[in-house]
Structures are given as C-alpha cells and as structure tokens.
C-alpha cells in the first residue's frame, strides 16, 4: 500500500512539473512571437481567462474581426499584403504618449509610480516614472538603434515597496512602413489596459530604399476631391516633401534634417560637405490644413548635441505651398527672426499638398490636435533683460507725459499754458464732427517729428 501511494505521489508530482514546463514554454514562445495576443487567445483554454477580460476575448480561435475589436490601429499582420522592410540599420523613434485602463495600485500606503521598459535586440531603454492613475501620460521621446532584430518588446512596471509587473506587448517593426509615423494603440497582452505609441523608423544611410512617394497627381487629386468623403475624417489630406539639397552653411557640417508636421516626425540621413545632398522623399498625413511644416537642420557633432543647437530652421504654412514647385527656402536662426549663420543658408525643397476642402473646413471648427511632445519653458536671461528695458522705457515715457502736462495745464510755464489755452478755445470754435477722423493723423505727426529730431542728432 505504501509503495502504491508513493508511486501515485511521484506520478502526480511529475505531471504537475510537466504542466508547469508546458505553460512556461508556451509563455516564453508567445513572448518571442510578434503577435502574441493571437497565440494567447488560441491557448485560452489552457490558461486562465481573467487576465484578458479587458481585451474582450472569448475562448475561440481568433479571427481578424475579433482582433480588430481588441487592437486599435494595430500593426499589419502576415495575412495582409504588406511587404517586410529589409532595412538593417535605422533609428527607431518612439514617443511613449499615454496608457489607459490600467488597474488601481494596491493600497499599501506607499507612493506608486509606473514606468516602461522598451527592448529592441540587446538594447534596453527605460522611460521616466509617473504617478499611477487610470490615465497615465509620459509624452517622452526615445530613440533606439534597429539592427537585425525587428521585434519591439514593451513591458509596464509598477514601482512601490517592490516592483510589480503590470503587462507587456510586442510590436513587429518589419511590417511598419519606413519614413512614416505610425500611431499605435496596443493592448497589453499580460494585463489590463492599453498603450499609445508613436513609432517612426528612419534609415541612417542612403543605401536603404524608402518607399516611392511620387504618386500620380491625378490619383491624389481624385482621392482628396471635395465629393470623396468615404475615407478617414481625421485625415484631411497628404503632404509630399522632397528634400533635395542644402548649401550656404558655415564650414563643412555633417548635417541632417528633421521634418515635423504636428505629431509626425522624420529624420534624414547625415550628409557632409559645403553643399549637402539628401534626395529623400517623405509623405505626411495632414490633420489640419492650417498647420505648419517645421524643418530643422542639425549638425551631427558632439558640441551641437550637448547644446541642442541648430544650423537653421524654417516653418512653412501648408496653405502657401504651390504643388510641384521646386524652390530654395532660406533658413533662420533659433528665434526665427534673423537669418541663420553662414552665407545665406538655404535648402532646396519640392512640396505638394493634396487636401479635401470639405473635411478641412469642418476640421477648423474642431479642437486642434495636441502635440505629443511639448517644449518646456526655459529661463531666458535675454528675454528678462528685454522685459526690464521695456518697463524702464514705459516709466520714462509716463514721466515725460506728466512733466509736459504740468507745463501746459498747471501754469508751470506761463507762456506755454497761455498758448495751450488759446489753442483750446480755437479748437472748439472751429471743430466740426466730420473732423473727428482727422485725429488719426496725430500719431503719424508725432512719429514724423520724433524721427526728424533724431536725424538732427
């Protein structure tokens, strides 16, 4: 009897270990696959379904229709006719925007913060920690090198008395289009809630072939005609940018360009020399036709990276673009008031914008899209000095006006007061109501007299 019981216990012990090994292997294999949510749904009979209540998943094999309910703006799948990008060296720009639907932290009397770990290949970066609530915002931009591994792994952690795992998700970057910004809402596979990411893959060499953006003009005009209202109402048009060359910079910089339109941002490869050549084409989705295309030229050197200095920048309104026109745009300095340093530095651009007038008109009555990354206000000494000068000049002007009033109307100067009294009587004797608009000439007369006085000195 004792031997039989021992055999039963050994058998149950080995079966429990086998089940744990199978669960661990399946979990590990799912984490290595690009779309683990599909695998997790298919294996939901073997695992507890409580974790996936927020994803609205049933115990059935997943279909594309079911997946579209759980993933908003998901990454294209293998079934879609999307070609994998074969770029091996690129920069992945990730904007960690926000997280929603996260569970409440445990009430242990400790201050809880949440941070993300992002891993691509052997490189891991960590976001800043923010306070835990139902709607968490990071609004942080991070850059990571893309090599052979195209699987982006993101994990969410709660930090209190001890570190707790809150969920993870996986994105296959090989199905994302190069040189385009992708807004992704990704459901957490191992927990509640979802993450909002903005991902852009920018090649660092000119060898990587970007998608051809020179589409047919007739096709784009037809796509965004006023009667074509069947497409996405959030996108009112497309902006096609061809960055050709640049010249006039001081020295021989190793320069690259950053183009930004609202929340879409791309970066060109670096080019060295006195006359820079990029020859890169990009496409931006237009969400507001009144937006500006911001172009910034930066030097890829250590000094400029430390001081965040630029070689020049310019903002181009979309409504002033002439389609298909190739022209030089002069660059300005950091304040966008003066010409940048150099021999009139400029860039050669070819711009075309296609937009639906009906959608764009309706979009103007809606709130403007909030930028993911907001510039923090900096303490500017020159601005403080200019404000102090303005206050000083204002008080000096008030003192001059006060002295003139005393001399004219308080009889400090009897001759001047008599002349002002005589002029006052004549004014009301000859004044008519139709003469009132002539009073608008007084500021111009004052400016003419003051400028003439300065010329003498």
From TrEMBL:
Listed GO CC annotations: synaptic vesicle membrane
GO biological process, one term: regulation of neurotransmitter secretion
Any one GO molecular-function label of the UniProt entry: calcium ion binding
Recorded superkingdom: Eukaryota
Transmembrane domains' residue ranges: 421-448
Annotated organism of origin: Manduca sexta
Domain C2: 74-186, 219-333
Keywords: Calcium, Membrane, Metal-binding, Transmembrane, Transmembrane helix
Descriptive protein name: C2 domain-containing protein
């Amino acid at each position: 009897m004792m031997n039989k019981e021992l055999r039963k216990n050994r058998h149950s012990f080995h079966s429990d270990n086998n089940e744990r090994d199978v669960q661990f292997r399946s979990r590990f294999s799912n984490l290595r696959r690009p779309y683990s949510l599909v695998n997790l749904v298919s294996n939901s009979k073997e695992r507890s379904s409580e974790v996936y209540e927020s994803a609205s998943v049933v115990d059935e094999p997943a279909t594309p229709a079911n997946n579209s309910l759980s993933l908003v703006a998901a990454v294209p799948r293998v079934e879609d006719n999307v070609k994998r990008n074969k770029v091996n060296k690129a920069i992945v720009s990730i904007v960690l925007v926000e997280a929603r639907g996260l569970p409440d932290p445990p009430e242990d009397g400790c201050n809880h913060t949440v941070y993300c770990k992002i891993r691509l290949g052997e490189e891991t970066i960590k976001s800043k920690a923010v306070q835990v609530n139902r709607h968490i915002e990071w609004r942080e931009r991070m850059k990571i090198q893309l090599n052979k591994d195209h699987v982006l792994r993101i994990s969410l952690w709660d930090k209190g008395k001890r570190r707790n795992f809150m969920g993870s998700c996986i994105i296959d970057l090989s199905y994302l289009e190069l040189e385009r910004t992708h807004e992704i809402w990704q459901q957490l596979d191992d927990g509640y809630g979802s993450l909002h990411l903005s991902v852009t893959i920018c090649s660092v060499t000119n060898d990587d072939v970007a998608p051809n953006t020179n589409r047919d003009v007739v096709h784009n005009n037809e796509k965004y005609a006023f009667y074509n209202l069947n497409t996405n109402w959030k996108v009112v048009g497309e902006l096609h940018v061809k960055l050709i060359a640049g010249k006039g910079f001081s020295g021989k910089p190793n320069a690259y360009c950053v183009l930004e339109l609202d929340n879409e941002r791309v970066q060109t490869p670096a080019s060295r020399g006195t006359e820079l050549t990029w020859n890169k084409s990009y496409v931006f989705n237009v969400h507001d036709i009144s937006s500006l295309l911001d172009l910034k030229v930066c030097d890829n050197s250590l000094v400029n990276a430390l001081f965040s200095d630029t070689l020049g920048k310019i903002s181009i309104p979309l409504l002033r673009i002439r389609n298909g026109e190739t022209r030089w745009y002069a660059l300005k300095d950091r304040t966008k008031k003066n010409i940048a340093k150099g021999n009139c530095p400029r860039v050669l651009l070819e711009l075309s914008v296609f937009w639906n007038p009906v959608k764009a008109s309706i979009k103007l009555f809606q709130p403007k899209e909030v930028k993911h990354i907001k510039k923090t206000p900096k303490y500017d000494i020159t601005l403080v000095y200019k404000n102090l000068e303005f206050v000083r000049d204002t008080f000096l002007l008030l003192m001059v006006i006060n002295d003139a009033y005393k001399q004219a109307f308080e009889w400090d100067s009897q001759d001047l007061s008599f002349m002002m009294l005589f002029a006052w009587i004549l004014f009301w004797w000859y004044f008519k109501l139709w003469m009132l608009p002539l009073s608008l000439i007084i500021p111009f007369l004052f400016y003419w007299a003051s400028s003439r006085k300065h010329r003498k000195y």
